[in-house]
Amino acid sequence: MSHVFTVIFCISVICITGHVAASANEQGIADTPFAQEYREFHQHEDNSSANDTRAIAVDGDNIVWTATAAGIYRLNKTGVWQNMLESRNAGPAFAAAADANGDVWFGAWNGLYSSNRTGALNKVADVNEPISAIAFCDAQAVAMGPYGLWLCERGRWTKHTGPWANTANAIVCEGDGTFWAATGHGAFQFRGAEIMRHLYDEAALLTNDLKGVAIAPDGAMWLGGFGGLDVYEKGRRKQSYSPREGLPHSDVRRIAFHPDGTLWACTALGVARLKNGAWSLRHSLRWLPSVDVRDVAFDAQGAAWVATARGVAVIKRRMMTLAEKAEHYYRILLERKVRDPWIVGISRLMKQGDVSTSLHEDEDNDGQYTNLYLAMEAFRYQVTGDPEALARARKAAETMELFQTVTGTTGFIARTIVPPEWAAPDTPNPHRLHDRNRTYTERQIADIHTRDPRMKPVEERWRATADGKWLWKGDTSSDEICGHFFGYYIFHEFVAQTEQEKQRVAELARRVMDYIIEGGYVLRDTDGTATRWGVWSPEMLLGNGDWYAERRINATELLCFLKTTAHLTGDEKYEREYRRLMDEYGYLELARAPKPTNPAERTCIDSELLALVFPALLGVETNPVIREAYLQGLHQWFGQVEKDYSPFFNFTCGAYGVKDFGLEKCVAFLRDAPLDLIYWTVDNRQREDVTLVRYPELYGWQTDRLLPASERYVMRWDKNPYDAVNGFDGYCESTGVYWLLPYWMGRYYGFIEAPESQ
């Protein structure tokens, strides 16, 4: 983008739309490269016991080896696991460790094995009993198992027995010729076969059921087990870590230190990491085949190879900028998320986690989310001047007009449209056509209305167009209308290049607005009655107690619809209706505090809808008294969502007058968000570093603090970021617009700077 375009553009931000540039609020964040984590799985497809991985190591040639319930395996260069044990030695293996030469040693059911750089595996002749832990000291090798201690000096292994516990799980060597063994009955310090010290009671350890031990880069010894972690420095306990100190789960297994100094603790709920005093957690199928983690090893590039009960994951890092991340998501969107005629929506993965099996699927909010996509392309066009962004925004706008005309009415809007073959019984995606047409008995209706008098039992949701080209879905909601008017406003202000384009979108807004007005400020379906959620009339909002929770936000929505239409068309009748609702029914007063705060009424859907209506209200309204009311409403909403650090919500608030909107933490969300867009189910209910609460919403368990983006399910801004569990088990994939829209908004408003390469 040229400097001239930038200057003209930044001036237009304030003059045309009333936005506030970043310089008036917070300094823009530089788009410097950051470490983006992602994962790959390496599993045995035909042998579940081989996936039961107990230990893992990387040899001097950067080859990964595993000790599994089925034996010892090596990952070859084609990514295939190779069984390294002869059939006569087949059986479980328990331990793996690399020596100073880069050879990997294994403890198995029938003794010790060593690899060499040729890939061969050799059995140690002297050791013929189970070995559960191995370590290599300066001048000797150490192995332990249920029947004793083995020491190797000058190539000769000798067995020792003694009063120590034989439940050895891990061994680590110190630099003074001693080594420590973590056992099921405490930690034993050895010099040779002599016990030097035994840490056992509660004064010495959080737990004596120890599973892991490691030496930190600073020389401190870390011990882990069922209870947490203890840190010893110069022979004295320096610190302990339990969930009270932020450890995500207290069932600690192996522990290891990454070359960069980060602690990796293998737990029963994934891998917990401690770096610079802050904990992070990698769990769920987003990161691991199983949360039952047994071991971790690091390769020459710093990638972490994680052994779990269901196979191996490698967690890698790549340096990238936010701009590069945006390109990554955008490629996914264009490849898998756009369906005819230009609807942008989630897709179904017919095989869990396999994006090659992605098939399109309808959703109730296809119109709303396609309008969010339209807005993303609009901001992208304004920032980059890319003609493809302009062309695609126009395609989305044409499709949104089709959502109206396809209904055959003067102004009703379809929820979505699909080709008729989606209704066929042999459709390859059986989840298509959500809410198929059905009938209700009087008894069913009575049962429904007893629980919710507002519920509308709709028998015909899907209707065919006269030409048979489309099926369209009715019972359209207020969410959809908010999305469409948001799209009309954005298209008119940021996309339309000609008066003809502006007139076209203005007439579309007029048709929809007239339809709502003529319906008595409800959205009447083709059956002549209001849809389930399309209600904005004073009679219902102010005169029906069942609509109490929605009265403030729905009043704000209607003011937005009218003001947007007045602005686009220039027709005074919409301004008159706008003022009448304020003067006669107090709609402006309701807009001063539009966000419900009662946990029984609060939803994140409301917040998303407010993000759709405030841009037009504050971007168009010039009356200082009315603007002040809207600014009060904006701040009331922001007060409810500020600490969620949603870049969509907070950037919207920052663009229209909120000064301290948490820019750095919003950008941190954009950086930390997962690189894949699959809706993995992320269950944080077993975490011990959070408390489950019924707040800020009453319904459903939530965490008492906001977890990082990488430790939650892929966000949608109508969902609760505090949900303790959410997701689709890896069978759906996001469009990525949840991320792309705030990113390009951030670029547009100057909250995020362009990378240096641009």
The main β sheet shows up as: 4 strands, antiparallel
Which band does the percent of strand residues land in? Answer: 25-35%
> What strand order characterises the main sheet?
1-28-27-26
Give me the number of helical elements: 17
- Give the termini separation: 8 Å
Alpha carbon gyration radius:
31 Å
Low-pLDDT sequence parts: 1-17, 21-25
* Number of E-type strands: 42
Strand-pairing-aware structural class:
alpha+beta
> Whole-number average pLDDT?
96
Q: How much helix is in the residues?
A: 25-40%
Shape: elongated
Task: Please characterize this protein's 3D structure.
Strand 34 (462-464) and strand 35 form a beta hairpin. Strands 1-28-27-26 form a four-stranded antiparallel beta sheet. The protein has a four-stranded antiparallel beta sheet with strand order 2-3-4-5. The protein is 30% helix and 25% strand. The protein is of the alpha+beta class. The protein is elongated and about 95 Å long.
Q: Secondary-structure map with pairings?
A:
Layout: H1 3-17, E1 34-42, H2 48-51, E2 53-58, E3 64-68, E4 71-75, E5 81-83, E6 93-98, E7 104-108, E8 111-115, E9 121-123, E10 133-136, E11 141-145, E12 148-153, E13 156-160, E14 168-173, E15 179-183, E16 186-191, E17 194-199, E18 210-215, E19 221-225, E20 228-233, E21 236-241, E22 252-257, E23 263-267, E24 270-275, E25 278-282, E26 293-298, E27 304-308, E28 311-320, H3 322-336, E29 338-339, E30 343-344, E31 347-349, E32 358-360, H4 366-384, H5 387-405, E33 417-418, H6 442-451, E34 462-464, E35 471-473, H7 478-495, H8 499-518, E36 522-524, E37 530-535, H9 538-543, H10 551-569, H11 572-585, H12 587-591, H13 604-620, H14 624-641, H15 647-655, H16 663-672, E38 682-683, E39 692-693, E40 702-703, E41 725-726, E42 732-733, H17 737-749
Helix pairs in contact: 3-17, 4-5, 4-7, 4-17, 5-7, 7-8, 7-10, 7-13, 8-10, 10-11, 10-13, 13-14, 13-15, 15-17
